[in-house]
Amino acid sequence: MGPGPDLMQKYCLLPLDVEEIRRNTQVASFQRREVIFRQNTPKSHFMFIISGMVKIYKEGKNRRTFILKLSTPGDCIGLMSDFSHATHQYSASAVEKVEIGYIDRQVFDEVLSNNPKLALSLIRKLSEDGLFIFDRLIARSHKQLPGRIADVILYFSDVIYNKEEFEFPLTRRELAELAGTTKESFIRTLMEFKNDKIISLDGSSVKINSMKIVRTLSELG
Fold first, then answer.
1. What is the pTM of this model?
2. Non-local CB neighbours of 141 within 8 Å, separated by 6+ positions
3. How far is CA 14 from CA 5, 87, 113, 125, in A?
4. Cα-Cα-Cα-Cα dihedral of 9, 12, 15, 21, to 10°?
5. Percentages helix, strand, coil for the chain, rounded to the nearest 5?
6. Under 8 Å between Cβ of 92 and 75
7. What is the DSSP letter of 86?
8. C-beta atoms surrounding 107 within 10 Å
9. Out of 7, 40, 141, 158, which residue is the most buried by the measure of CB atoms under 10 Å away?
10. By the 8 A CB rule, do 147 and 220 touch?
């Protein structure tokens, strides 16, 4: 198995690129919560998601983690440190059952050198990821808790699922890490959203009842 339509569309892969990558790709499966790679471990392959969802996170002191983003099929999960360090600068784990494609690094570098559009698309993706993380860091520093919780809801609605009714794929603790708060504060604020009928909440199932209010809370911070 090799790159599918998601990867081809995102990174402007040519038919010859696809065939070369397919011949040099190995696939591994990971179960929910299983670590795919750990921060500060050596890199050896270019990795992309074939199926499932992956949590990208930075590990700090006292076992605290900062969730950078969630990655979905077609995403290259080592991209932010692939061209600058010999080791992974963050960790990745499976949110659900995932399949990861491992491309031989030398093969991928040859494909990259022969496809300027692929190189440009990777630069664009790196820029998008960097700006997204910058925005999240600023939000964590300047927004009040309701604004940050609204940001989390919008992240899943607008970016991950593209719909107003979905299920949180993360635990409450992980959602709190994504929002930059404690688990207790996250749950309390989420329940306030529910009691105010801004959202409907049933376990992990979420339905946005007033997108206008959620966006206003996010914008006002």
1. 0.83
2. none
3. 12, 29, 13, 18
4. -90
5. 50, 25, 30
6. no
7. S
8. 16
9. 7
10. yes
Q: How far is CA 15 from CA 21, 26, 30, 110, 124, in A?
A: 10, 19, 28, 15, 21
C-alpha to C-alpha distance for 95 and 57, rounded to whole angstroms? 12
7: closest CA among 130, 104, 128, 122? 122
Residue 141: both structure tokens together: 């520093």
Tell me how far apart the alpha carbons of residues 217 and 139 are, in angstroms, rounded to a whole number. Answer: 12
Taking only the tens place, the pLDDT of each residue in 2-32 is 555 555 556 556 667 777 777 888 899 999 9
Q: Mind listing the domains of the chain with CATH numbers?
A: 5-138 (2.60.120.10), 143-220 (1.10.10.10)
Residue 8 near residue 20, CB atoms below 8 Å? no
Assign residue 39 a region: left if phi > 0, alpha if psi is -120 to 50, beta otherwise? beta
pLDDT digits (tens, 9 = 90+) for 124-138: 888 888 888 888 888
